[in-house]
Amino acid sequence: AVFGDIFQLLDRQANGSSEYGITFNNEIMRFLHRQGVISSIRDEVRIPPNLNIWSTMNSADQGVYPIDTAFRRRWRQEYVPIDYSSAPDGSIDIVFPSGSIQSLPWSRFARVINEYLIDVLGIAEDRLLGPWFVTEEDLARSSCIPGKVLIYLWDDLLRHHGRGKVFDVTTVKTFGEISARVESSH
């Protein structure tokens, strides 16, 4: 819906130019003519063969509506696996119920959490923690697990998969309680 008629420009011929041309209202067509994009206001607008559009898509980041097949099929898709070796430098402290603390590099923490999410909970690959889910700045701010990781797990990922499989829901019932416990542990 956001693309409107421009959506048609995404269908490309073998040489890379748009298969279908589109026109806009007279004001936009005059503007494009003045800018030298089209030679006449009666021309159709097309993507030229030397223009490529690069984007990243994560099917888990769909907002309100899923990305529909008609849109996705207009892109050449390349799978990019999670690469923990490119993760930001930094560690987080894991506080165990006994009170002991173990520092873990972020890349190792993300890998362990992801393995658990896949093996035990059957979470889809596109919902896992990517190596850059947090930044070096997030990790430098505190030795705690960044709040955005915890809230993602609590609210987005485990809301329907059973929070008790990751969090001790006998002692914490809300995200606020988790947040307070993390802060008080340091």
Provide a compact summary of the structure.
By secondary structure, the chain is mostly helical. It has helices at residues 26-34, 69-72, 106-119, 136-141, 147-157, 175-184; strands at residues 91-95, 101-105. 29% of the residues lie in helices and 5% in strands.
How would you portray this structure in words?
With 186 residues, the protein is mainly α. Helix content is 29%, strand content 5%. It has six helices and two strands, in the order ααββαααα. The chain has helices at residues 26-34, 69-72, 106-119, 136-141, 147-157, 175-184; strands at residues 91-95, 101-105. The chain has a two-stranded antiparallel sheet with strand order 1-2. A hairpin with a 5-residue loop joins strand 1 (91-95) and strand 2 (101-105). It is elongated. It starts with 25 loop residues before the first helix and ends with a helix. The mean pLDDT is 86.
- Total number of helices: 6
Strand tally: 2
- The share of residues in helices is 25-40%
What string gives the helices and strands in order?
Answer: HHEEHHHH
Taking the sheet with the most strands, its summary is: 2 strands, antiparallel
pLDDT under 50 segments (min length 5)? Answer: none
Shape: elongated
Name the structural class. Answer: mainly alpha
Radius of gyration: 24 Å
Per DSSP, what share of the residues sits in E-state strands of 2 or more residues? Answer: 5-15%
Overall mean pLDDT? 86
**How far apart are the first and last residues' alpha carbons, in Å?**
47 Å
Widest sheet, order of strands:
1-2
